[in-house]
Structures are given as C-alpha cells and as structure tokens.
Amino acid sequence: MNLNNLDNIYQEAQQTKQQADQRFESTQDIVDVIFPIVGIVMALTFVFILLMIFSSKFRGKIMAKQIKAVDFATTKTKKNITNIAKNTSGAVEVTTKAFARGVKKGLK
C-alpha cells in the first residue's frame, strides 16, 4: 500500500514537472516574439529622435499635426460645452417653473 502511494506521488510530481516545463516553453516563445519587437520599437524611437533634432522640415510637419489636433480638440470641446449649456439651461428652466408654481400654491 505504501509503495502504491509513493508511486502515485511520484507520477503526480512528474506530471507537475511536465506542466511546468510546458509553461516555461510557452513563456519562452512569448519572449522570443516580444524581444525583437521591443528592439525594433527602440530603434524607430532613436531614429525619430534624431530626425526631430536634425531635420527642421520634419519637426515642422510634426508641429503642424499637433496644432491641427489641438484646434480640433478645442473646437469639439467648445461645441460640447455649448450643447451642455443649452441642455442644462432647459432643465433649469423647467425646474424653476415647477418650483415657482409650488411656491405660488403654498402662498395661497
């Protein structure tokens, strides 16, 4: 009976070791894919920084895109604030009228 228990424990340990090895291999596969991608991103970042330092034409293009993005964001925000103000003022008007009616009825 003790030998059977020891045999079962040994088999379970072997299965656990195989599962751990498989997990390590899949993790290694992920690292094998991610490592070159990180290297490429770092190289592209380095090239981008060099272009920003030495090329005024490239810097101008990037700044123009930033200005367009800021302009779009401010225009969009202005429209949103206008819509919020209109919607809120309508709700306040309805609430104020109802409050005034209630006060008027209370005074009678």
Shape category: flat
Q: What is the element string, with H for helices and E for strands?
A: HH
Distance, first to last CA: 96 Å
Q: How many domains make up the 3D coordinates?
A: 2
Strand content: under 5%
- Give start-end ranges of low-pLDDT stretches: none
- What's the count of strands? 0
- Rounded to the nearest angstrom, the radius of gyration is 34 Å
Portion of residues within helices: over 70%
What's the pLDDT, averaged over the residues? 80
Oligomer: single chain
Biggest beta sheet attributes: none
Estimated structural class = mainly alpha
Count of alpha and pi helical runs? 2
Description:
The chain has 2 domains: 1-54; 56-108. It is mainly alpha-helical. The mean pLDDT is 80. The protein has helices spanning 2-54, 56-107. The chain starts with a helix and ends with a helix.
In short:
With 108 residues, this protein is mainly α. The chain contains two helices and no strands. The mean pLDDT is 80.
What's the layout of helices and strands?
Elements: H1 2-54, H2 56-107
Q: Key terms for this structure?
A:
108 residues; mainly alpha; 2 domains
